[in-house]
Amino acid sequence: MSEPAPSSPPTLTDAERAELRRQGILLTSMEELYNWGRSHSVWPLQFGLACCAIEMIAASMARFDIARFGSEVFRPSPRQADLLIVSGTVTKKMTPQVVRLWNQMPEPKYCIAMGACAISGGPFKQGYNVLKGIDRFIPVDIYIPGCPPRPEALLHGLMQLQEKIRGQKISGPGAPRHLQADTTCEYPVPDFGEHDLVPPQNPAVWQPPVIVRKEGA
Amino acid sequence: MNAVLILIALVTVGTAIAAMAGRNLLHSVLLLALAWTGVAAFYLWAGAEFAAFAQVLVYVGAISMVVLFAVLLTRRSRDEAAPGPAGQSRALSAVMAAAAVAGVLVGAILRSPLAASPGPAPAVTVRQLGAELMGPYAAALLAVGVLLTVALIGAVVLAAGDRTGQPEDNP
Amino acid sequence: MSAAATTSESFLERAPLLLRDAVTGFLPEPARWLANSLLSIVAVLAVFGLLFAFLTLAERKILGRVQNRPGPNRTGWFGLLQPFADGIKMLTKEDIVPRAADQLLHFLAPVTLLALSILTFAVIPYGRHLVPVELDSAVLYFFAAGAATELAIFMAGWASHNKYALLAAMRALAQLISYELPLLLSFVPVVLATGTLSTTGIVAAQGGWKWHLIPHWIVFTPWGAAGFAIFMVSALAESNRSPFDLPEAESELIAGHLTEYSGFKYALFFMAEYFGMCALSGMAVTLFLGGWQAPLPVLEFIPSYVWFAGKLLTLLLGFIWIRATLPRLRIDQLTRLAWKFLVPLALVNLGTAAFWSLTSAWSGPLQLLRWAVALVLVAGPFLLLGRGLTAGLGPRTYRYA
Amino acid sequence: MSFSDPSPLSAAPGASVRAVHDEFHGDLLEVSMGPHHPSTHGVFRMMVTLDGETVVKLKPVFGYLHRNHEKIGENTSYLGSMPYTDRLDYLCSMTNNWAYALAVEKLAGQAVPERAEYLRVILAELTRLLNHTCLAGFLLQDCGASGTPLMYAFREREKILDLFESLSGSRMMCNYQRFGGCRVDAPAGWLDAARALTDGYGSFLDEYEALLTGNEILMARTQGIGCLSAKLAVSAGVTGPLLRAAGVAYDLRKVDGYGFYPRFDFRVPLGAHGDTYDRYMVRVLEMRESIRILQQALRDIPAGPIMDPKAKLRGFRPKPGEVYSRIEGPKGEIGFHLISEGGPNPYRYRVRPPSLINLTILEDLCLGHSIADAVVILGSIDIVLGEVDR
Amino acid sequence: MLGSGLLQGLAVTAKNFVGSFHDPKRFVTTQYPEEKTRLPEAYRNFPFLVSENAEDPMGTLRCVACQICEKECPPQCIYIEKSKDKKPDASGKQQIYPAVFDIDTAVCMSCQICVEVCPFDAIKMDQVFELAATDRFTGLMLDRHALAKPNSYFHQLHPTEAAEVDDRLATERKAAEEKARAAAAAKAAAAAKPPAVPPPPPAVVPLPPPVPPAA
Amino acid sequence: METPDQIRDRLLSRFPGAAVSLISNPGPAAQHSLLLDAADARAIATFLRDDPGLQLDFCSNVTGVDWPDREIVETTRTSTPDPAGGPAKVVEQKTKRLQPGCLEVVYHLYSVALLHGPVVLRLRTGNRSDQVSLPSLTPVWRACEFQEREVFDLFGVVFEGHPDLRRILMWDGFKDHPMRKDYVEPDDYEWEPTPHGDVLAKAKRHYPTPAPAVVKEEPKP
């Protein structure tokens, strides 16, 4: 369910390379075509949460024009969307809805956490009703810091996402989530508890890493 | 060409039966629309282009919509038993109605002069059709028109009677 | 495709037929007929399939330009490959069917819709010799096939088992019932004037020029112009385009009947919408704009299908332009517009057309009288009914504290 | 093929088959619009009960963007709360800044230099232009126009944002004003740029009005829809353009005369019907008045310091006391209620959110109208969820 | 007349459509990756640490780890650990330096309060916004190596402000030097008297350890 | 406009049995407020709204304030005159006294008709238990509807006579009243890269020993 660990080496093993060679050029060109199509047609969900949503709207407006990337088709229904831009503070009251929306999107789907609040709770992380990062419940592909990020930063994030899509393999262990047969696109939706969400995070998606700081120059 | 005719007939009758037997009201309506299309196909097979397209336009295009509307706007839940005579008497009335319709149809068929061998169908132009309707059959046309108008008014009365006490301001 | 071309026509005019004969000419007669039909089907699908692809792109680019931005321009040269990227993505997207949905109807709805909208292409004369099927009552066939499409939209809305989709289904029904009538009534005068229901006949009747200058297109008569306007407004409504896109009213009903459709099924709906738009525009061209006829005698050297395509694209541009500008009507206003404005107008227009054909023998100063009476008959009801429609509405003046 | 929740957008998934069948044949259809819905302007939710398409009951549900602004404000220093006020009504950070700065200045009894007061008026009026322009765009979007009016509105918004950015460093979250003045002075050429923008804004409004104001569809969609009576408006605490569209002459710029507003010549447009069209038009006319104020302010602005030299940023501890201070924000009366106990943080930090209180009358306005109208009425109330839920 | 308003609207959109091909006022798009918006001088995104010298950023940070910004930062996105030893700063004065200085850009709200409260002009606002990352923890947590930017960079971003800061620092330094000189003179005067205590041994200046050049 | 003193006097004369006291505001704003008794608050509010001299028809702001129990140290000086006729002996005595806390609801009233204000009303509950109630002023001013709901949600004051008293910002199953000063936030802390103060303490609680994973590599060139 979780993304492949970032530490796994992106290089191919010899066996994989041989396998690829056997499958030949057809697969790679298929792969390229598939990835090309996906990466140039990323339709976001028309979904705004807070301040960042205004910058997201601004990114789709004339000055920045996200349409140039083929992504101006903001679909209001999650069924037709490819990209969930979590733009703004996710409150605990809103979290189940966001996870549900994510579940309702068909694979392949991507998630951009736009702005400090969506990544970590941002300036509001001290709040009792604020989720400290949407990646506690759904896998995030791209994080765009900023409060709010400029529309150009969103475009930059979108280009990063396109890069990421273009780099995906359609077979083998590095294949994206939606091409792995044993993974599900259903993520558990948290419940409202008496004091907090139950559970407060999805351990299958999110494990808190620990930073150990080394002193010295 | 007989194979085509049999196919059309099977589809028409089959969908009609399915529409009657179906439990899902919406499915029945859609099947009914399909049956009407079958009838249109039959007209087409018989060379009556105009009648066929008019059938589709009027029945599939418009009447089925009205039926759908009627189904959706009917207030009564379909689970409630329809008011009226139950059991045997219902069956009796159904048989009687069916017999009456069949009688009229058979009578009409018997009385119409059928050619012994179905030669090539006469090319009926729209102009001729219009002339016939406005000439010899004008009275029948008027009667049908009046009948439909009355039915429409009746439908309006029925629909409006359902919402007693509620002013109907929305068009 | 029928009607053998005479060799007196230009090569370009005959090119499609020659091409067809080159492909199927070696076949024996019955097989040839079949092959010719298949070929026309393939040709129509290919042409309109491509038109659909580029129309979506054109719409996005034109909307962009209207809104002061370039639109898609990074996928391929000038963004020309954008529709194909979208197509690949749509094809490979997961198909979700809601658990509670009516599985069969949920699947059938887009298929039916697309099939019906493709059927309408059969009778449009795309050029002098390019009409896939010639029927005596072709116009009737066209509207019969078109009338069933909203049934498919209803199926989609109802089968999705979603409240928004259901509301959209109801709206689609109301819209169809309201606009079918003005749509049909608006072309009756054309049939009255030309005396035929065949599309080729109607186009043929619009051939020729008055004083070698004004073509005999129906739109150049007062009742023709009015009929054309009514037809186009109704066509906007029939194809669910803005400002009549109520079933897919994004601001109220999410995506209306499409709310629960994903992936390829959604693409089919999308395609059907554009096909419907193309077909209705094509019919408008046929009925009112002289079909494939050239506007001026000197321009006849340009092949007929080019003229048809040009007129078709102009109308489609109009569709897009209107979409870029206008807000949406409300459902009751929509039905009111149909019943209280378009239907009476279309009926009066029928009378006007009758008057016009009865007075076709008038000449000289009587000709002026004929024009005057017809214009009054067209404009008078328009103004009167329009005033009734906008009663109580209007600009206001404001006071200041 | 996979299967998913039966009803994706209603809040309670799994509405059973049975229930919907009842709704088919029964009387009322309950629709949950939001929190994810294209026209709820964020994560707002309306529980709507429909008879056909007519709204018979409408209950707003809040809290989907409740980010604990007041609690954070009580745990943060006076200065530290300033950037948070940007995020209240994130379209109008400058007026929020001003409202908060004014409240703290009243709490601590601070004075503001003249140039800063002028700058504040200029920024507040620019914010008003920005807000009303965006609102008009969003309102038309709710009416179903496919983006074009919104695009034109945002085209102009970008011009104002450029001004804000070159002044304060950020497009939206300006964090510009301080207790006792403003953070930095306007850079060279800024005032000229502001003048150019102000002078060109009228022609934009003309074009915008040509696009929309005479549009029959817009008039049909908005005139006579959602009429708000003056009595209800006052009782429900409705403020801002909504109140004035209902015909009540209550503009805090005139009533309280805060800042330097008494120095400027401007009028307060009033509506007569209180319907959606009036709410829209009153805003358009207010924009024209804002342009007049801006022209006067940009003409008269003096040179001088922009910060009270006695002002203290770090370790700012006002004496114990309490204040409620309000200004006329673009959406209505935005107020701050501060209680100081003498500490570095306010003891009580309360925001009076105009958007939330203006929503009190939402149900009254929508009853009897269709669901499409409800969306437009909500649009004409002009809410920003950051402020509604805080 | 019915329709006149609609036609007026259509005229406006047509004007914009045609205008978008020749009128830059009606074609406002900045095509981002190729064209870039010229950011105003005041633009701010995330903070960076000013170092005097590009060659040795760690050795010449202005920051003395006073932790004022850490305390004042409203969202608390700064983490500082003071060094346990002292190192000479750019002017050779012994200073405490930040052993750890982390800014979590995933939290930072770009409010600039750290800049306002910093008494040493050590932290300033950067203008880089293309920071999208695929990993939140390694990509968005900036440590002092990533944060340190030379003064010349600061000049490039905010020329006016940087010039002011340099002036101010120069005057302060001068004042400090004069003060030190005066103090030294006073000390010397005091030292002229017999010393009561033995003079302290000369301070040993530890050399800064070699640091790889900052990216 | 009448001063708060005058209003209080008028109220006292109009409602002889009512307890209306003036709470002065020491700050420069000097917005003094009237403390009303819960029993006759609604009658007084209606009077304030309808009185032709006041016409406070616009309730701008409603908010709650939490005053927890606090220990007050009072210093009393008693000077006993020295019987010997010398300087009086001053004895300072410190007494600790527990001031019981309360929840307070503050209303800021203005008049749209007469363009004056604000008049500040305060209502206080007797204690800070979970079910403390005050009369709702929503029947007097509609503007209180959502704001009183908010006070109910965040402070836990039950407003009697409120037409629709439900939680407004938090979800319905939520149990706490987060704006109270003694509210304890849920311990959903997991990991935060830049911890401070109590967050750091929480971090220590969650990770008593540093976890093995090292993500951050330093130095990063």
Assign the CATH superfamily of the domain at 1-76 in chain B: NADH-ubiquinone/plastoquinone oxidoreductase chain 6, subunit NuoJ
How many distinct helices of chain D?
A: 16
Gap between N and C termini of chain D: 41 Å
Give the largest interface pair and sizes. C-D, 51 and 66 residues
Distance between the termini of chain B: 49 Å
Strand order across the largest sheet of chain D: 2-3-4
Query: What do we call the CATH topology of the domain at 1-76 in chain B?
Result: Four Helix Bundle (Hemerythrin (Met), subunit A)
Strand content of chain D: 5-15%
Task: Report the count of strand segments of chain B.
Answer: 0
Characterise this structure.
- The complex is a heterohexamer of chains A (217), B (171), C (401), D (390), E (215) and F (221).
- With 217 residues, chain A is an alpha/beta fold.
- Chain A has five helices and five strands, in the order ααβαβαβαββ.
- In chain A, strands 1-2-3 form a three-stranded parallel beta sheet. In chain A, strands 4-5 form a two-stranded antiparallel ribbon.
- The longest helix of chain A is centred in the N-terminal third of the chain and has 27 residues.
- The radius of gyration of chain A is 18 Å and the shape is globular.
- Chain A starts with 13 loop residues before the first helix and ends in a 19-residue tail after the last strand.
- Chain D has 390 residues and is an alpha+beta fold.
- Chain D is built from 16 helices and ten strands.
- Chain D is globular, with a radius of gyration of 22 Å.
- The N terminus of chain D is likely disordered.
- Chain F is α/β, with parallel strands linked by helices and 221 residues long.
- In chain F, the strands form three sheets. Chain F has a five-stranded mixed beta sheet with strand order 1-2-7-6-3, with helices on one face.
- The N and C termini of chain F lie far apart (69 Å).
- Classes of the chains: A alpha/beta (217), B mainly alpha (171), C mainly alpha (401), D alpha+beta (390), E alpha+beta (215), F alpha/beta (221).
- At the A-F interface, loops of A face loops of F.
Strand and helix layout:
The complex is a heterohexamer of chains A (217), B (171), C (401), D (390), E (215) and F (221).
Chain A: H1 14-40, H2 51-59, E1 83-87, H3 95-104, E2 110-114, H4 116-120, E3 142-144, H5 151-166, E4 191-192, E5 197-198
Parallel strand pairs in A: 1-2, 2-3
Antiparallel strand pairs in A: 4-5
Helix pairs in contact in A: 1-5, 2-5
Chain C: H1 11-24, H2 29-66, H3 82-92, E1 96-98, H4 103-119, H5 138-147, H6 149-159, H7 163-194, H8 199-205, E2 209-210, E3 214-215, H9 222-238, H10 250-253, H11 263-288, H12 304-325, H13 331-358, H14 365-389, E4 399-400
Antiparallel strand pairs in C: 2-3
Helix pairs in contact in C: 2-11, 2-12, 3-11, 4-6, 4-11, 6-7, 7-9, 7-13, 9-11, 9-13, 11-12, 13-14
Chain E: H1 4-22, E1 47-51, H2 68-72, E2 78-88, E3 94-104, H3 113-117, E4 123-125, H4 136-140, E5 141-142, H5 144-147, E6 148-150, H6 151-157, H7 159-192
Parallel strand pairs in E: 1-6
Antiparallel strand pairs in E: 1-4, 2-3, 3-5
